[in-house]
Amino acid sequence: MTQEEEIAHLRAENQALRETLNQALAQLSEVREDLRLALVRIEELEKQKTPPPEFVKANVKKPKAEEKKQRKKRATEYNHGRPRSAPTQVVEHRIVTCPACQLRLGGISLARVREVIDVPPPPRVEVTHHRIFKGWCASCQKWHEAPVDFHTEVLGQGRLGVRLSSLIATLRTVMRLPMRQIRQLLLSLHGVDVSIGEIVEVLHRISTHAQPLLDDLKATIRASSAVQSDETGWREDGLNGYIWSVSTLIMRYYEYHHSRAGEVIKQLLGETFQGVLGSDFYAGYNIYQGFHQRCWVHYLRDIHKLKGKYPGDTEVWRWAKAVKDVYDQAVAWVAQEPDPGWSPRQLHQMRVAQQHAFEQLLWAICQPYVRTTAPQQTDVANAWKTFYPNCLCSWRCQAFRRITI
Fold it and tell me: Is the pTM of this model over 0.85?
């Protein structure tokens, strides 16, 4: 190849490389433009990103090793080992001779105690045949049987005793075991073979037997001067439902319903209830038209969330502190013991007057934000405006002195 040909070849190769470079630069420019558009789109989507729901907890940055607080030491009364249980039997393991040289040992004393906790073997089922004899009366011309009373041993005409029936009811209601597992458990532990149909019949019999007791519990609750109510979700046989509770200072009653409507609380309280009902702000409780105390824990929790939503708004924080101060004053007043010389009528009049006084204080704090665009109106004060008559009713009821409001 001559020098001129080599130069021409190199120039052609150089030109091809230049064209390839230009194409690469053009593609790189397109990629940069696509990347710029993607970043702009990502920024727009981040601005439109909705906040997570309230039940999703925010990620908390773990503190560095040097920032960790020193672990709080336990009180001295807890710095000891687990105490031993009282023994039901003692087994002594003594040694007389040396296991190595068979020499008789001296100075024998207790070296240590090994505690073993176990359950005894499950007892087998007891089958009792009550043999009832009869006799013929020549005067009455009839047969007479020996008098017996089985009401303390068995329910109705069934063959399962009260202890076995109670065990079945506990396994079904408290332990929530299926029928087949209850049957297998009784057969494995106690050697008693009970059919599924008999287990169902025992549960129905216990339900019928306990109905008067449930009616007495409801009557006692309905006669109380103050009742606290709540409800929570509960699945039964694969279906969504709710457990409703009505509680007094000395009694707790729970009942399952498929509905969360206000008719349930109306049914639980009955038509004769004249006391104060305590509840949260769920609208289902609005059906009750008597004295109604709304839960201050829920209300103060909403105020706390409001402060977190507007951390830099001093007006919101001032308003929240003013509401909390009134609540603290009311709680302190409730904690005071009344004058023993006052009559019940005087005590009632004093409580009602104090209730109205606290209501006026709260109304003066919340009223300026009603029907405004302030955060207090949009988030919390609207609830106060709606449930204004239900926030301090418990002050008129002595039974609510120990119930959290």
Answer: no
